[in-house]
Design goal:
Layout (H helix, E strand, L loop, with lengths): L2 H31 L1 H8 L6 H16 L1 H15 L1 H19 L5 H4 L2 H29 L7 H30 L1 H8 L1 H19 L5 H8 L7 H6 L2 H36 L4 H15 L1 H13 L2 H25 L10 E4 L3 E6 L6 E11 L4 E11 L4 E4 L4 E6 L2 H22 L2 H8 L5 H17 L2 H10 L10 H17 L11
Antiparallel strand pairs: 1-3, 2-3, 3-4, 4-5, 4-6
Length: 509
């Protein structure tokens, strides 16, 4: 086969693998992107902040089971082949996502709603646990060893691409039908649309051929008879599994989910930035940063994988807290003076009678526009004592639905872009790094487990654990960052001491 035909073939392989993987990430991340709205649908109206935490816990559950999916589908991939295994994971993922869009709300079926969603999230997690290892292995086994980082980095873009697609569909749907309808029933549309995307991807994947390396193993009768045993009972191989987990994927996972998930959650839920603004910030940052997956993946073919990944971790350790402090400072409107205000809308007054008394809770909300171009909704609450005719403050003013000035908006885009740039550093080379650690016959199983423990458990828990830590008494809004900083620090130390930085071999191990 000519070099030109080989090149065309590898890009067809990348395209077919990437499309399915992108759709699976889209399916998986719709839930996280809509956590606030879904929480209001799955739990009682008076659940308050616990609804968001419980929803993030359901979101995290999908990550926790990913290692089990890696074991189940990794074993299948090493026994029956890469192609049919990640075709099966695509069907499971797409079906689960579609069904989440059909589940009634808490007001209709009570706590059966979050239980059913939890079950479907677990199926999603199992499916994704088998998808990534299959796609990465499939592409790597078609690629020449000296360009493995470049070719597999295209698969790495699909995780961010799936997030980008989910955010785009969510924002477009909300703007078309309106915020009220979207919060009521429109949030289901992105889930239901996924079935069309999955159908297209299944059609494309059915036309794919098996990996040439696996085909060669099968022809020679060298396919592993027990991939799990050979992966984890073999002392040398198991040592590489542990090194891959604690020296690379654990740190990579927390960097990934801090930059692309916790950033959005923090900006929306802690800083109270407007729904659309928070997502536009992430969309622009992702669009600017995504090409760097390929840049760093290709660079790793020339200089090695290790120090690119570890530098990404180190920069996150050093800069997360200063970045998130800027988010807080630039959305703090408690010190706004009359001179800063351009306009205030007519106040809307709501009055709620207190139980057992004639006293009332009076809330006044008004939209405030600043000279800088920022705006927000200010809510002031007081108790009016009917008999005495006096009022007393109930709580400090609340500020929500904050729209950022143009300057601040693009500053936030730059800061999130920097975080996603770190994601591209740790994530761009990781597939090639993992593939090169393990022999072909047990590669699917061996690489999938450390990847999904590092990403699914340590990384996927970032939004939940960080939000939970920040809710503890005596904590600050930045307290949750100690979790990803601590995990990344540990991984950086282990990786710096024990990982090899050898350049990719010219021949398959």
């Amino acid at each position: 086969m000519s070099k030109e035909l080989q090149k065309n073939n590898i890009f067809k392989v990348i395209g077919a693998s990437s499309l399915g993987t992108l759709i699976e990430w889209y399916d998986f991340y719709i839930f996280g992107s809509l956590a606030t709205i879904i929480g209001a649908q799955l739990f009682p109206a008076d659940a308050g902040a616990s609804a968001l935490i419980n929803t993030l816990a359901i979101f995290a559950a999908g990550f926790i089971v990913r290692p089990f999916g890696a074991l189940v589908f990794g074993r299948l991939g090493d026994l029956i082949g890469r192609k049919y295994t990640f075709l099966l994971t695509l069907v499971l993922m797409g079906g689960s996502t579609f069904l989440i869009g059909l589940i009634p709300s808490y007001s209709s079926i009570g706590y059966a709603a979050p239980i059913l969603v939890l079950i479907l999230r677990l199926v999603q997690g199992l499916a994704l646990g088998g998808e990534y290892g299959g796609a990465a292995t499939y592409v790597a086994e078609h690629a020449p060893a000296n360009k493995r980082g470049f070719f597999t980095s295209w698969i790495q873009t699909t995780a961010t691409g799936g997030l980008f697609l989910s955010l785009g569909v969510i924002v477009l749907t909300k703007n078309l039908i309106g915020a009220s309808a979207f919060a009521d029933w429109g949030w289901r549309i992105p889930f239901l649309l996924s079935i069309l995307l999955v159908g297209v991807s299944i059609y494309i994947r059915l036309k794919m051929h098996e990996s040439p390396m696996f085909t060669k193993l099968k022809t020679e009768g060298k396919v592993s008879k027990n991939p799990l045993k050979e992966s984890f009972n073999n002392k040398t191989n198991f040592k590489m599994v542990l090194l891959a987990l604690f020296g690379a994927t654990m740190g990579q996972g927390v960097i990934w989910y801090t930059g692309q998930f916790y950033a959005q959650s923090f900006i929306e839920n802690t800083c109270k930035v407007d729904f659309n603004d928070s997502r536009y910030i992430l969309l622009w940052a992702i669009a600017f940063a995504t090409p760097f997956f390929v840049i760093f993946g290709s660079w790793s073919d020339k200089v090695g994988r290790k120090w690119i990944m570890l530098l990404g971790m180190l920069l996150g350790i050093l800069f997360y807290r200063p970045i998130y402090q800027v988010f807080l400072d630039d959305t703090d409107f408690t010190k706004v003076t009359q001179q800063d205000i351009q306009a205030i809308s007519d106040p809307v007054v709501t009055r709620t009678l207190m139980d057992g008394t004639r006293d009332s809770l009076i809330s006044t909300s008004a939209n405030v526009t600043l000279l800088s171009g920022s705006s927000y909704q200010r809510i002031q609450s007081h108790i009016k004592f009917e008999e005495k005719g006096k009022t007393a403050a109930v709580q400090p003013d609340q500020f929500k639905d904050k729209k950022l000035s143009t300057v601040v908006f693009w500053k936030f885009v730059a800061l999130v872009f920097f975080q996603i740039l770190l994601v591209t550093m740790v994530y761009g080379p990781i597939a090639a790094f993992l593939v090169e650690l393990f022999p072909t016959k047990i590669r699917y199983t061996s690489m999938s487990l450390p990847y999904h423990v590092g990403n699914g458990v340590f990384g996927g828990l970032v939004p939940f654990i960080a939000t939970l830590i920040a809710s503890f008494s005596g904590s600050t809004p930045l307290s949750g960052l100690w979790y990803p900083i601590g995990i990344a620090s540990l991984s950086f130390i282990i990786g710096a001491v024990y990982l090899s930085n050898k350049k990719p071999a010219e021949t398959e191990a």
